[in-house]
Write a structure and sequence with these properties.
heterodimer; A: alpha/beta; 7-stranded mixed sheet; 3-stranded mixed sheet; 22% helix; B: alpha/beta; 8-stranded parallel sheet; 8 strands; 43% helix
């Protein structure tokens, strides 16, 4: 995997309140890209892009509000590229089937949590992502959400069955599965190369 | 047993990292836990402190009660079965429990064998007091390890002992030459391939959480600083004076475990933590951590 010289100047923030944040930092590390844990508003000033990891959306939403991160994050996300996986993808949508979860409304869909069922329905599968990778991607779905009322501005990059599972709208990339749990950093690389570096 | 399924099992544990899993006995408590920011709840009929007090045989919970808790919350619901009681585990799997805890808190059903956890699609968490025990459980298919600590005591001393033992033993393995690993596996009584894996990576092949005696935000911080990736709180929340405040505070402590100023703020005015038990007050035969091997 080619490491680009532009990577040296980048710092990718990973919201590190709860969930798979360390795995995302590890995926970035594989690309030779620095990451920074975001737990307080000041952390947002030191990053070029943001990742919202997988985890429990109710827990994350609560901690975002309590730590005073929600408002400043909402503000920087007006322009800053962001990548959300699973719970992160739920938070970036317009709305979710739980009033306690406060969404950022940065991508035009509504999320339905645990749409495949409980853990016993969690699974791993191979995805074809033609616009991104020349090989299949091993995708791990954990109590994954589905997305409804997807607006035309949202580009579907991969589907599982009939459901879009990897989508992009401008600077926002989302996956209902967990690229951070897979050895292959291909999707993280796409986020950096096509979205983060292109938005500079 | 494919590697793929195992990744799906450990995957859920990855999602729970940096969080708190709380013991609950009613749908109301489950809602309080979720509202406070718990990443999962453990549904059981009696919390460990009450099991210790009441005596008798502690078994898996009534499916009706488990279902009510599943209905009350959207976060993952775990439940306990007795050590070696694979029929209880089968019932929990049929209930679509998200994680099964083969737990020393309940009365063991088999003194010779733990459950062969590879047979299940539902992931298992198991307790361990040292590295060899952790690797035996992983060998049987556990996708998550937690310290046993001494449940229901509100006393952190045993969880600290177990976490320090596990991390020290992992460090000791990592300095061995390859030609010493078979002897190490023989002496530990642990599967060779897992011993070799720990020697190479310096960490457990599955997430490493902590349970048993956590009663304050500072306890949670201590265990996270010693290497725990997530905290189980059993009796510590619903045996404290102000359960809601304590639950919220421990959730915050799991995130800001390395920020003392923040912890000072979090720990302020929480009311009394659970009373707790000194280890010398517990008869050796009543020690839950000695159940299983």
């Amino acid at each position: 995997m080619d490491v680009r010289p532009e990577y040296d100047d980048l710092t990718i923030g990973v919201v590190a309140l709860q969930g798979s944040f360390a795995k995302h930092a590890f995926s970035m590390g594989k690309l030779g890209i620095k990451s920074r844990a975001v737990r307080e508003p000041e952390d947002l000033k030191l990053i070029d892009a943001l990742i919202l990891p997988g985890g429990e959306s109710t827990t994350m939403s609560l901690l975002l509000e309590e730590e005073g991160l929600w408002e400043p994050m909402n503000e920087v996300l007006e322009t800053m590229p962001v990548f959300g996986t699973c719970a992160g993808a739920i938070l970036l949508g317009q709305q979710v089937d739980d009033e306690r979860v406060r969404c950022f409304n940065k991508i035009d869909y509504k999320a339905e949590r645990n749409a495949y069922g409980r853990q016993i329905e969690s699974f791993k599968t191979s995805l074809i992502i033609p616009t991104m990778l020349d090989h299949d991607f091993h995708a791990i779905f954990i109590r994954a959400p589905k997305f409804r009322e997807i607006k035309p501005g949202v580009q579907s990059l991969a589907v599982f069955g009939v459901d879009p599972v990897l989508m992009r709208q401008d600077n926002v990339l989302v996956a209902s599965f967990h690229p951070e749990l897979t050895e292959d950093p291909g999707i993280h690389k796409y986020f950096v190369d096509e979205i983060v570096l292109n938005s500079r | 047993m494919t590697k793929e399924l195992f990744e799906v099992k450990t995957g859920l544990a990855e999602m729970l990292k940096g969080g708190v899993i709380m013991d609950v006995t009613t749908p109301e408590q489950a809602k309080i836990a979720e509202q406070a920011g718990a990443v999962a709840v453990m549904a059981l009929e009696r919390i460990p402190a009450d099991i210790r007090r009441d005596g008798g045989i502690a078994r898996a919970s009534d499916p009706k009660m488990i279902k009510e808790i599943q209905k009350a919350v959207s976060i993952p619901v775990m439940a306990k079965c007795r050590i070696g009681h694979f029929a209880e585990a089968q019932i929990l799997e049929a209930l679509e429990i998200d994680y099964i805890d083969e737990s020393e808190v309940l009365t063991p059903a088999d003194e010779a064998n733990h459950i062969w956890k590879h047979d299940f699609k539902t992931p298992f968490v198991c307790g361990a007091t040292n590295l060899a025990e952790a690797l035996r459980r992983i060998g049987e298919g556990a996708a998550l390890i937690r310290t046993k600590g001494e449940p229901g005591t509100g006393n952190i001393v045993e969880a600290v002992r177990h976490m320090r033992t596990i991390t020290t033993e992992m460090a000791n393995l990592s300095i061995l030459r390859t030609d010493q690993l078979m002897a190490a596996a023989k002496n530990m009584g642990a599967p060779f391939h897992l011993v070799a894996q720990v020697a190479e990576t310096g960490k457990l092949p599955v997430p490493n959480f902590s349970a048993g005696g956590i009663a304050t935000p500072a306890d949670a911080s201590l265990m996270m600083q010693l290497g725990a990736e997530t905290i189980f709180v059993g009796s510590g929340i619903f045996k404290s004076e102000d359960s809601e405040a304590m639950a919220k505070a421990i959730v915050q402590a799991a995130t800001f475990y390395d920020k003392p100023e923040k912890l000072a703020e979090i720990s302020e005015g929480l009311g009394k933590a659970m009373k707790g038990l000194d280890m010398i007050e517990i008869n050796p035969e009543d020690r839950m951590q000695d159940r299983g091997w």
